[in-house]
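Reopening this one. Same input as before:
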Amino acid sequence: MFPLVQRCCFRTPFKLQKLTGPSLLLYGRKRTTVSSLSLCLRREVCLLSRSPSLNSASVYATKLHAFHTSLPFFKKKTPKAETKDSGILKRSMKSLKESPKPALYLSLAGLIPFVSVPLSMAIQGTYYPELAFAQITYGAVTVSFVGGMRWGFALPEDSPAKPDWLNLANSTIPLLLAWQALLFKDTTSGAVMVVMALGIALHYDVSLLPAYPRWFKVLRVMGTVVMVLSLLATAALKTMLEEQLSDSRNKWQNTK
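Same output, byte for byte:
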């Protein structure tokens, strides 16, 4: 009880209260000790109260010190997140260089029919539906070829892939999508269907089914990206060039 009264009435420092509190409790039964201690505390409080400037200065210095002091975890510099894109790109290019030359050159040559169709349309400024359908047909044949590679990889006895439903049946799903693309009269719908078939075939080869060599996976990813972009470019050119053709026809009819 006495320490509480001492804090409220005399406003003594916390350290002084902490030191005097146990002594007061220990000798609380002796009135003379309590009275002498209270007189000493009053004298010290009076001495402290005589120098208000000193007290205010110390409080101000303490506040400044607390203001300029930060917690330890704020001073620690957060490490910068290391980007792994450059490392992945370097490893991919290295594995691509390690690929057999016939596989690399034949794969690059197989991309020429895909790239040449939208490139020729963009240069001439005219949409050719026959070329667009030929591109879709070539994409369907490519999807069939990729599915056949999975069968050829799984059939040998010493192959890491087993000739089970997962390896053989999943190879036919992109083939069915590619066949469906040839049945569309609209070349845009056929191009979108071939893009879906190429994406599913790539997902099977890279993620789900037993892994090919790393150089082949990099080659598959690069080839699929080029084929998909070529098909989408042809579909976009169809929309743009047909709109320009319709606008020119309308202008020509208005001039008449």
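So the earlier flakiness isn't reproducible anymore. For the record, Residues 22 and 39 are 17 Å apart (CA to CA).
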